[in-house]
Design brief:
By secondary structure, the protein is of the alpha/beta class. It is built from 7 helices and 5 strands. Helix 3 packs parallel to helix 4. This is Hydrolase.
């Protein structure tokens, strides 16, 4: 995901969640942001992207990923601990279309994730979201059906790092924990660059219109 003030896109229908997220917006956001202006910005950002088209395009990518994953999971080496790394915004959750809290799952990605987790694959989520809303994010992912083996969010110092480098470092950490990352799935080049995954799959972001 290309980092933006993602918080303008979450929990529009929940006053408590909206207040938490507004507090979490990084300093790069220009000027003060309120819940009402956040919702307006989200609607504007997604206005040029048709939901049905987005879902169809996501399904096309996941249809390419699933046969590989089925075969790779079946071919797991003895003792191998397999993992998939996912981005969150407009990859595993419908950030630009889910104007509620919890946000809905992106169904094509969820179906792939559930197949993997049902076959013993660990799911890790690496996001540019700030750490202050880690608990909210973890709850959302679990609530809609993802088994979260690990959630990586940005600490204060990470906010000053290049997003692609930050995400690569988290995958390195997952490998150091003894996992083989058989796939890395996201909707931006910053999610997928840097290696440390056997395969990468890019969901559509329509030239950055989706975060």
């Amino acid at each position: 995901m290309t980092f933006r003030p993602w918080a303008r896109r979450i929990a529009v229908g929940s006053a408590s969640a909206a207040a938490l997220v507004a507090f979490a917006v990084p300093a790069e956001a220009a000027g003060p942001t309120t819940a009402s202006t956040s919702a307006t910005a989200a609607v504007t950002a997604a206005a040029d992207v048709d939901y049905t088209t987005w879902q169809r395009d996501c399904q096309t990518v996941m249809d390419q990923a699933l046969p590989y994953l089925k075969q790779r999971i079946a071919d797991a080496r003895p003792g191998e601990r397999q993992a998939i790394v996912f981005d969150i915004d407009n990859t595993t959750l419908e950030t630009d279309f889910g104007f509620s809290f919890p946000q809905p799952a992106n169904r094509p990605a969820l179906r792939v994730a559930q197949y993997a987790q049902d076959h013993g694959v660990a799911l890790f989520f690496v996001t540019a979201r700030p750490g202050i809303i880690a608990g909210v994010t973890d709850f959302n992912l679990e609530h809609v059906g993802y088994d979260v083996s690990g959630l990586y969010v940005r600490g204060f110092l990470d906010l000053f790092k290049n997003v692609a480098d930050y995400k690569t470092a988290q995958r390195v950490d997952i490998e150091k924990r003894g996992y083989t990352i058989i796939a890395n799935i996201g909707n931006s080049a910053t999610d997928l660059s840097g290696g440390h995954a056997e395969k990468t799959y890019k969901l559509p972001d329509y030239d950055g219109q989706l975060s």
